[in-house]
Predict the structure.
Amino acid sequence: MTDTAPHRRALAARLTTAGVLTTPAWRAAVQAIPRENFLNPGVFLPDGSRWRPVTATGSDPAEWAEIAYSDESLTTQLDGHLTADQTAEPVAGYPTSSSTTPVTVLDMIERLEVQDGHQVLEIGTGTGYSSALMCHRLGEDNVTTVEVDPGVAARADAALETTGFSTWTVTGDGLLGHPRRAPYDRVIATCAVSRIPYTWIRQTRPGGIVLATVGSWGYGTGLAKVVVSDHGTAEGRIVDRSSFMQARSQAVVPIAGDLSARTAYPDSERPAKVRPTILGEWMPAFIAQLAAPGAQLVRARADDGEQLLYVFDPARESFAEFIAEGEAWTVRQGGPVALWDVIERALLAWKDAGSPDITTVQVRITERAHTYWIGDNPELRWEHRIV
């Protein structure tokens, strides 16, 4: 067995140099917690369009240590069930659980601003590595972690026990929090949510912090940090870009079927004032999700290889289809909501304001609504009612 203490020290040094690891107590946690304990039975590494399984028992110990302490997210489950010990050959699949890159884990943990004695609720146990870091810093009785997948939860619980922590590992829907152990001083989510559930606000003490990635696309999402008030509301801002797998119950179902049939009968057609390809950029994608929270960006290819681009909102039965004409674009829209009108208006207002960064977005949460805004422009203010 390879002694990974040097790898842990090297990881802590890299995170410190990167400016992510700034607190001595968290540095001590990184140096103490063996990340390899939380990668059993193995990981999937990218191999072209497939995933190559790698396990601890089937690898050279030195190679396994290098993988465990790489600065990468490591996929640990595909398609909601497949683990690396269940196949010997590269496979196709969709990642459904992973060990997040250490820089992201520690960046979020540092932003929590924990103090001795704080009670923390973690949504999305995953491998259990971040849970272990918090247990080392706060004590196992002060950490409650919730995982929706029973298999993932069981593996994380076993890894935590192996590492010496008998913490509160709960199998359940993290969107409901865990009222039995409330109130909490801090809530941290390691999955993305379309909006921060009010249950998390209700289960947090006044003055407590909730930290979560908001958005429903695979990119163009933001890390929201809000402080809970005495009145049951919370307010803060987007502090950085962030990307996580979507909470299972909120995972977007891909638009399927004949896309041309779905867009066959538009209500309007006009030149686009903003090129739709801008939605491939992070901040415009985030603005689009604020303006039309139920919308999905869909890319496809026609039989002749032509790139096709759409925006769909299944809940509101609306669509926008884009047709390239040289450097210009035409938009065809249908359904009760003119989706591109809504998104385009927000993008134009954002550009007119000087294309501010994602960290300028402020957020306020009440029991009835989430409100986001940038500055004083009413075109850059979005209220998402909770129904």
The chain has a mean pLDDT of 93. Residues 147 and 275 are 40 Å apart (CA to CA).
